[in-house]
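Hey all, sorry for the wall of text incoming. These are the two entities for the joint prediction.
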Amino acid sequence: MKVKVLTRNPDIYLRETKKDIHKLPRNYDPSLHPFEAPREYTKALNSVKLERVFAKPFIGNLDGHRDGISCIAKQSHALSILASGDYCGELRVWDLPQRKCKWKIQAHDGFLRGLTFCNDNERFISVGQDKTIKIWSADEQYCKVPEEPLSVILSSTVITGISHHQKEPKFATCGDVCQIWEESRAEPLKVMEWGVDSLQHVAFNPIESHILASCASDRSIILYDTREAGPIRKIVTKMRTNQLSWNPMEAFIFSGANEDYNVYSYDTRNLSMPVNIHEDHVSAVTSIDYAPTGREFVTGSYDKSVRIFEVHKGHSREIYHTKRMQHVTNVCWTLDNKYIVSASDEMNIRLWKARASEKLGVLRPREKAALEYADTLKQRFAEFPQIKRIARHRQVPRHIYHEQQQLRASKQKISRKEANRRAHSKPGTVPFVPARKKVVINEAS
Amino acid sequence: MSKKLKKFQSKRENDSESDSDVYEDEIHNRFLENIKQSEAKPKITPATRNEPASEVSEFHLQSKRKSDKGKSTFRKEDLLRPLKSKNAKLAQKLEAVKKTSALPKPLETVYEKKIQREVGYEKTKKQLDRWNDVVQSNRVADQLQFPLKNRQVEIYDHTEDFLFCSTSNPTPLEKELSAILNSSDVAKEDHEKMEQTKFRTTLKDIISKRKMMASVRAKASYVVSKGRRQNKIKSKKYHRLLRGEKTKQQIKDFEALQKTDPEAALKQLEMLEKSRAEERATLRHRNTGKWARNQVIKAKYNKESRVALSEQLSKNRELTQDLKVKDKDSDDSADESDVTTNIEKVQTDSNNPWVPGSDDFNKFISSYKKYYAETAPRGNSAESASHVDSTESVSHGDSVEQNSLEQLKTTTDEGNDSEPGEVEDMPQHTVQEVENSPKLKKSKKKSVVRGKVEEELKTDDECALIKEITNSSGSWTVSKLPAAENSSNVKSKKNKKSSESGSSSNVSDMFESLEEKISKKLKRKISEISEAPKTNNVENKKVGKKQKAKKKKKLTKSGQNKPNDDQNKQIESDKDKQIDDQNNPFASRSKVTKEPCPPVDVIADFKETSYRNPTKDVTDLQNDDEDGDTYRQMVEEAFAADDVVADFEQEKAEAVDNSLPKIVDSSLPGWGSWTNSAELTEKKTKTKRPRLNKRLLFKVPKAPPRKDANKGHVIINEEKSNKLKEHLVSALPYPFTRVKDFEASIRAPIGRTWVPETAHRQLIAQPVVTKLGSVIEPMDEGELMDRGEL
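and here's what came out:
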């Protein structure tokens, strides 16, 4: 049998040395490339498929806590250390790159409520159910277990949350009242109250660092000016805000994780309605943290999932879940914009990639260029049905899936009912009210 | 009774009071005094602060200054009294103050706090508004790089560790040394200075920078506009003067440079040489420029322009003089023999379009040729066309040259066919040749002109002239014309003369060699063609009937009646074409060779200085490359067994069949065929085809003719594809408002296959760029513009 083979002379296409770079002559005349758009579409389709193939966001977990984790804290100007506290008052310091526990200590009697690193990264502060504020030293690269805290401040009431100032050695706590402390003093510098008996979370604005926001159990969010005025504004929403986080790149934007399954982003200058509603969770959103780029944020929810939202979009771009992850109590986005840490009720801290299919480590220039090209193509063809379908497809746990369906049905029911009422009543009596205007019930000054 | 009782009771009470009052008061007072005395020190002391606290309890406050009687320990008047005597004005003011009414009662705390909050919120809003611009610009930015580069410039003070900048871990000694050095007064002062100076960009800086840039740009534009204005000046005198000035200045400069810096002068000389070489490499100083073409048009009437043209050409000659690159002629005899053998090997298959013997291949090649023949005279030798069309004198020269070529051709013909009779009626023959050549589509007009020329030549004693010119390598110069001979163009004449005398014999030698080569080629071609069984009809179609007649006439004249007329014609036409192809490049090149040189040089000249003639390329395509032939042979071998055409036809037939609308039979089994048992048995025994009820047949209307009905070489699938539909966008995506825009955006490619690398990089730039392992700090005050210093 005769076998026909097309052969090529290897001298033509092989390089003699590694540094021989062939210049590929190209003719860019569009009449010579009649199928450029279909070819790019195929490329986009392939890359979006590959993206889903490589989407393996889970990196690892940090286990060791003997009770559910109540709070975690990241360093303010460094990457490698993470501190976490649990419901039985144990405090652990983790080395993130090694994924190991550096040391642990029984810090408080019962329920460690809040943790924060100082702005110089040399100390960190914990607050607990036992009405104490403890300042811990982080000397010697966190290698030595401190026998006792640097200082202990006794408070008259239970403190439920803590947040450190971005630049100065000050921190704010919340509980019955909101208090501003100086690290070296045992008495608060300032006490700010506005008729609420319990605040559960407090957060300093990282840019305009004299502004402070806290959320209260009476479904309100209160803004404070720490310099002179004290409390300046309060809004009451339909349901309670569990946590809030300031956008680190936009001084006036903050987002609150709400009990009504949604996240609301507010503009501090116009609090009468949120600038955006981010919905997708199927249970109360318990925690939120902004990416350092200010373009995205991550939320943890009682529905046992972590979601990533883009700031300007109403729905999440990503959902992370594992079989064993229970109610997520805390999330944080690392300062290099690469990873997400989530802490949950079942005693584990999990480490995720911020972009599920991203390749970790250093990329070669050509590889990088190829990935960027693929990303751009995905963007360009994002609206094409096949690409959209593949990019959006996520396998979610059964409970979330069913809950989503139920929620959808209930929403449809409400909207249908409203439409019916509108149809059968005098025109103008049932006005259209946008969803955003329904969020804030009362804005008080 | 009751009244009495009451009275009595009250009286008794009064009595007891009055009695006991004095007594009890005394006791009480005594008791109090006793207590007072017993309390040497008060048990409850006023609160003292030992811890710095921000909050002070109001219950601990008391005014100690007030005495028990409600009088204060000091009075304002006491303090003011000495003032009255000393400072009268102040006293008056105080009096005025006294007269003003009291301040209103302060607001209740609730309302006061509310107002405070309101004011505080407004202030905060204003504070936050400062970030608006930065946030907005970041939101709309195409690309953001994190960590953000602050506008504030940080200056790294390396004086602290200048000693051990080489090593990351300094030794203790080094540390001590640097500490000592840093503790010096000078170092401290420096350090303080550095700290005090803030390098933050201000609005003022940016505005001043912008102004500076604007002024620079404006100045540049002034210069440009001035240059434009100067360029527009038409005065020749002005330009001459300008040029003169420039050259003078240059010479002056050069002389000065020679004196001061001979090396630089040498360099400049080299530069001059180089520029000359570059000019030689370009096609300047030829007759292709705009000016030259205008001169050509004028040349008929104007002597001066003729002179100018000849000067120009002579300059070109001067410039192109010393090119001495030798190049071998590509057509070697050995090659030829190889090729011919190869071609002989080739088995012609009429069905395979890529076999050279087949119709398709011939068509393809001929169409290629035709195309290039058309483009060649248009594109490259526009000047020659203009000569022929417009000016007699110039076309004279051109036609003369052409004639020489034709003559050459005829000689080759003689060599091949050994037809002696043709030499005699040469002019006539040349005209025919010209007409036959596919190159000259507009040949009618031209041939008319040429015919005129020829007639003129006939009348004169031009045959000799032609020969003479062919000997002198056919250079077309105006000086050769009889009219121009009389003129004062001495220079060119001299040139010509010298050339004629110098190397006419050499040139003729060269020509002979060329002829030989051409004849060889022709032979080969003819053999190739004669082997091909089918005649090429396309060629014959092109040649008009008139021409055919002429040819026949010619043949009869020559007295050679060949038996196979058709084949002969074919060969003839092909031959003509070949000859043309061979000659055209030569013709165009011959224009370039103006200076008579030794033969090798001249050949080199042909190669180097001539502009590429596409007809040459066509011939390359067709025959002369050995590689091409072997490749073709390889392809043929590879696909020898594949009957591509038949396969395709079958496929197309199937496709057509499938696309034809089918007749729908809507009859149901059993229905309409009510029968008796006999028939049923009959049916069982015979496998009879069921009768079709015509009423139940649904005839589909005839489909419109297929798009590929008249296109033998393609199958056009006209069915809609559902698979494709899945991939199509159904709604217009968000930012677009028109479908056209969206389609355009999709159509513009971004891959490096379709756009240049730099553009590709810009197109794929990511919206957010982060640096691996670097902390992204929150935004900083440094991002804000400092507006205060405006």
